[in-house]
């Protein structure tokens, strides 16, 4: 099965449309959305409805911290811009869309793969995997051979051998990577809706569950339109700039 893994969509319609079309062109058979459907972007309702349609056709979807923030009155762990957008998002979603978010799980498993938004050791605490130490902690917290997670907004690939030594691989777009069964793996596909590595192109990954081959992709999209929508909605200008600058 060819599985498309998308995370941190962040209410960016243009980026999500581009990634879904790209995955379809490459014959993706299943889809997994790893949370943060909303936040930062100007099209939260459209993104939720689109993901919901995919779920009705068998796709998997997770809760992210921005999704949870829409449901909470207090969000002390979020910066002011994120809190502002979360409140704006809640006011721009209908009851059905809010119910969809509320029902999202924190994790799911497919065969030997674990899917979480932030990390495997405490999915509900939203701590980042942003280095070898955190990657090792996450991999040791599960029996799954491969962990997929988001939250960081930059594509990364970690591996751990039987001795517990962790290595890092910087993904190259469209270069397939075989995931050896002799190692444990942690995959961060990068963000669809708000990349932060200096490259504004949207990120996602395709995983061949039979061949255990992983391919990262960067997908250019109409980030000018997405950025202008952020400004037109009255959301912080810094969030619009991020879509142009990639960070």
TrEMBL record:
<protein>
    <submittedName>
        <fullName>Metallophosphoesterase family protein</fullName>
    </submittedName>
</protein>
<feature type="domain" description="Calcineurin-like phosphoesterase">
    <location>
        <begin position="1"/>
        <end position="211"/>
    </location>
</feature>
<dbReference type="InterPro" id="IPR011152">
    <property type="entry name" value="Pesterase_MJ0912"/>
</dbReference>
<dbReference type="InterPro" id="IPR029052">
    <property type="entry name" value="Metallo-depent_PP-like"/>
</dbReference>
<dbReference type="InterPro" id="IPR050126">
    <property type="entry name" value="Ap4A_hydrolase"/>
</dbReference>
<comment type="similarity">
    <text>Belongs to the metallophosphoesterase superfamily. YfcE family.</text>
</comment>
<dbReference type="InterPro" id="IPR024654">
    <property type="entry name" value="Calcineurin-like_PHP_lpxH"/>
</dbReference>
<dbReference type="Pfam" id="PF12850">
    <property type="entry name" value="Metallophos_2"/>
</dbReference>
């Amino acid at each position: 099965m060819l599985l498309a893994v998308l995370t941190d969509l962040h209410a960016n319609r243009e980026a999500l449309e581009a990634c879904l079309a790209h995955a379809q062109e490459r014959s993706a058979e299943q889809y997994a959305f790893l949370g943060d459907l909303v936040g930062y972007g100007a099209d939260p309702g459209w993104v939720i409805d689109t993901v919901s349609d995919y779920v009705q056709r068998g796709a998997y979807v997770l809760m992210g911290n921005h999704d949870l923030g829409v449901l909470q009155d207090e969000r002390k762990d979020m910066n002011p811009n994120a809190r502002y957008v979360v409140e704006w998002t809640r006011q721009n979603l209908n009851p059905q869309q809010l119910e969809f978010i509320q029902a999202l799980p924190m994790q799911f498993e497919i065969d030997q793969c674990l899917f979480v938004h932030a990390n495997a050791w405490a999915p509900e605490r939203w701590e980042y995997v942003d280095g070898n130490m955190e990657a090792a902690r996450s991999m040791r917290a599960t029996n799954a051979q491969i962990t997929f997670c988001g939250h960081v907004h930059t594509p990364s690939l970690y591996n751990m051998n039987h001795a517990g030594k962790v290595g890092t691989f910087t993904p190259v777009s469209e270069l397939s990577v075989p995931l050896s069964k002799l190692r444990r793996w942690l995959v961060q596909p990068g963000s669809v809706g708000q990349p932060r590595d200096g490259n504004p192109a949207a990120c996602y990954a395709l995983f061949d569950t039979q061949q255990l081959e992983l391919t990262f992709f960067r997908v250019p999209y109409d980030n000018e339109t997405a950025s202008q929508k952020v400004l037109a909605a009255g959301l912080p200008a810094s969030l619009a700039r991020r879509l142009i600058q990639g960070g």
